[in-house]
Amino acid sequence: MKVVEDPDVLASTTRKWQTNGQVVGLVPTMGALHAGHQSLIERARSMCDRVVVSIFVNPIQFSESSDFLSYPTPIDSDLDMCQTLGVDLVYRPDAKRMYPEGFSTSIHVARLTDAWEGRDRPGHFDGVATVVTKLLAASRADKAFFGQKDFQQCAVLRRLITDLDLDVEMVVCPTVRDHDGLALSSRNERLSAESRRNALAIPTSLRSLQKHFDDGQTESATLCDSIVQALTDNDLVIHYVEIVDSTDLAPVGTAQVGNVVIVAASSGGVRLLDNHILT
Amino acid sequence: MKVVEDPDVLASTTRKWQTNGQVVGLVPTMGALHAGHQSLIERARSMCDRVVVSIFVNPIQFSESSDFLSYPTPIDSDLDMCQTLGVDLVYRPDAKRMYPEGFSTSIHVARLTDAWEGRDRPGHFDGVATVVTKLLAASRADKAFFGQKDFQQCAVLRRLITDLDLDVEMVVCPTVRDHDGLALSSRNERLSAESRRNALAIPTSLRSLQKHFDDGQTESATLCDSIVQALTDNDLVIHYVEIVDSTDLAPVGTAQVGNVVIVAASSGGVRLLDNHILT
Questions:
Q1: Which of residues A119, A147, A173 is at a domain's end?
Q2: Do B104 and A109 touch (CB under 8 A)?
Q3: Residues B236, B154 within the same domain
């Protein structure tokens, strides 16, 4: 397994692979790899001849520097996981190389980024759009793999890829959950035992909502109320709970199959995201 | 010669070429091809296995719709020229395909775009950066060819390509001039005979400035004054005349070899650009 820090070396490597007719898959990550990343890498492994994993904690997508500085960076175990999963190349640029003095370019995706995470985290999606464009460009990826857990991010990146005519296939993989149902996230490490127990109200209430929907309840406000109640009862701070259209992320009054329930709430000060596509 | 309107067809064509080890060159144009474009295409032909010319009058880079609507579009003669010059593929998307309903993405290059053309044409460089990124992405170009006449545009695109890690080599080709010295531009067609005669003060005074510089004058203000005088004497409306650093485009007080004299002036209502790199 190669470990590469220079975007030009990355590009010349993948370029050579592509000249040999090989399909290159990219799994962009911020490291602290868990079973969710593992599922992305395995999916990439099954669909591509060559798998590139990028590990880069992107400073420009954090609105709070304390969040950035406390982001976990267990590089040795990350590299071990990549090696075990048969990754061909890990791209691990440093921040000075990604954003050198004089760096001037930013990418903005309008509208889709106005609400939800975009409202609560100013500049977050500009940072995501810019870094993902850089990673796709340097890796020359034919396919790129993202987790459904970050639903709004997937919607924004889908728009970006379409709008910029980027010649890459976006593959969105299902959220991976811990045995207790909590959606995997690198941030889960920060949860105390109690905060984690409380956080289980998120996946539990999402499952209950699907049952209410199955039973015939389609009014979004009513469906969401039950989540709000469950999260409040468990001491979570709610940022939003909403049922939205899966493409434009606009709230819907009457829920239907394919709409998405999106939730952001903090437990013990740790911001957690989850979502569920109504079936 | 293929003519393609669909970005996916373009990408799959160039992808096939690249899999065969062929180097793909892109010459992005807004059509109304003249000898300046011809020199770019010939340069691409000499450096690449496959040459793609894009012809697209990009609505989002025009700050005035009248300028956009009156931009010349002689498509038949453009295609003839491409055919004659051995172009492999002309990419001719339509505006609805480039910017469909829901299009949301914009690219901004900060600082370099604050002054000069950027100051006079709000949004212009965002439009240029966005469309060039799209054209580079859809064409999967290995090399891209631009004219030095649009000096600030070249500086902005160089920054963009570096910042986004785009895996493309940028080739800047010298300005091509008419027999009388006027820098070629599709906009020259709009000049009356008299406006055109007056406009010659631009290349003439740029040549004179080089002579003053050769004679030992290095004070930017003094050097530029002679241009301002010549343009004013010929009824041109001056937008800016400045000597700047070639990378960050900041004005320099004392001129030195490698600095660039940039000029924008209107003759009979037609905005003309020219520049000269001090030798």
A1: A173
A2: yes
A3: no
Tell whether A209 is covered by a domain.
yes
Structure tokens that stand for B45 in this block: 């032909």
- The yes-or-no answer on residue A212 being catalytic is no
Please enumerate residues of A whose Cβ is less than 8 A from a Cβ of B: 7, 11, 15, 18-19, 21, 102-112, 129-130, 133-135, 137-138, 140, 159-160, 163-167, 248
Residues shown for chain A = 279
The domain containing residue B257 runs over which residues? 186-273
Provide the pLDDT for residue B227.
Answer: 98
Q: Which residue of B lies nearest to A155 if distances are taken between CA atoms?
A: B104
Minimal Cα–Cα distance from A157 to chain B, Å?
10
Residue B122 tokens, joined: 């709000």
Give CB contacts under 8 A, 24+ apart, made by A196-202.
A196/A267, A198/A234, A198/A235, A198/A236, A198/A267, A198/A268, A199/A234, A199/A236, A199/A265, A199/A267, A199/A270, A199/A272, A200/A234, A201/A230, A201/A231, A201/A233, A201/A234, A201/A236, A202/A231, A202/A236, A202/A263, A202/A265, A202/A272, A202/A274
Residue A114 inside a domain? The answer is: yes
Residue A262's DSSP bridge partners are A242, A275
Q: Which of A15, A138, A167 sits opposite B137 (nearest CB)?
A: A167
CB contact under 8 A, A19 and B15: no
Q: For position B63, what pLDDT does the model report?
A: 84
pLDDT digits (tens, 9 = 90+) for B150-202: 999 999 999 999 999 999 999 999 999 999 999 999 999 999 999 999 999 99
- CATH classification of the domain holding B258: 3.30.1300.10
> Cα–Cα distance between A181 and A189 in angstroms, integer?
15
Report the CATH number at residue B163. Answer: 3.40.50.620
The ipTM, to two decimals, is 0.96
- Whether B105 and A110 lie within 8 Å, measured CB to CB: yes
The predicted model gives A70-76 an average pLDDT of: 91
Q: Is residue A260 part of a domain?
A: yes
User: Given an 8 Å threshold on Cβ–Cβ distance, is B104 in contact with A138?
Assistant: no
Q: How many domains does chain A have?
A: 2
Catalytic, out of A37, A179, A212, A239: A37
Is residue A180, in this structure, part of any structural domain at all? no
Give the number of A-B residue pairs with CB atoms closer than 8 Å: 86
Per-residue pLDDT reduced to its tens digit, A203-245: 999 999 999 999 999 999 999 999 999 999 999 999 999 999 9
pLDDT score for B254: 98
**Same domain, yes or no, for B23 and B145?**
yes
Chain B residue closest in CA terms to A14? B167
